[in-house]
Design a protein that fits this description.
This protein is 46% helix and 13% strand. By secondary structure, the protein is α+β, with helices and mostly antiparallel strands. The protein has a domain of 75 residues: Roll (SH3 type barrels). Strands 4-3-2-1-5 form a five-stranded antiparallel beta sheet, with helices on one face. The longest helix is centred in the first third of the chain and has 37 residues.
Amino acid sequence: MTTPFDEDPAPRPRTGWVASLRASFLTGIVVIAPVGLTVWLIWTVIGWVDGVVWPFVPNSYQPEQLLNRFLGNEGPTDPNWIRVNVRGVGVIVFLLFTLLVGWIAKGLIGRSMVRFAESLVDRVPVVRSIYSGVKQIAETVFNQEDRSFEKACLIQYPRKGVWAIGFVSTTAKGEIAVRAETSGKLMSVFVPTTPNPTSGFLLFFPEEDVIELDMTVEQAAKLVISAGLVYPNGQDPTKPPKH
C-alpha cells in the first residue's frame, strides 16, 4: 500500500515511435542488404562479361541486328527500327564458346594446337612469364582433382596457446616429409587471413597437432571471413554444426 508521501517508483522506459521506426528500419536493412548486394553483384558481372564479349561478335549477329532483320527492318534509320539491349546474352555466348574450346582442347588435334601455341609463347620472355603464372593459377583454382581442401581444423599458431582456423589440404610428400624432424605424418595446412581468405600461409604440422573440426570447409570459411561473428550454428554455437 502506498501513501502520498511515498516516493514515485522508477519510471519504466517507454519505447517511442522513433525507436520503433529505427528498429524496423534496421530489420529491413538486414533483409534487403544481402539480397540487394547479391543482385547488384550478379547484374554487374553479367554487364561486364557482355561488354567484353560483344566487341568480338560481328555486328550482323548482334541481338539487335538479328531481331530487326527478322522483323524486316532495313537499318537504324528505319522508323520501325527497334533498339534492344539484352543483358546476359553475352554470358551465354561466353559459356558456349568456352565449352567449344574445352571440347576441342580435349581432342588429339586440340592438344597438338595447344602445345604448338605454348611453344610459341615460351619463346617470348615477358609473355612467357605472365602466361605460365596465369596458367598455374587457373589450374590450381579450376582443376578439382586433388585440389580441394579436405577438412577444417584447429591449430596453435603463431605460438602455443593461440588458436587459429586452418584447412587441411593434403599429407606432406617428398622432400618436405623426409627432411622434417617428426616421427609421424606431416599435414599441409593452409591458414587463411581475415577478412580475405584467399591470402594466408602454408604451414606443415605434425598430425597429432592438428585438431580436425566437425564443421565443413564452407562453414569454417564463413567464420574466418566474418572475423568470428558467423558461427556454423549461430543460434547455439555449443551444439554441433548444422550440415
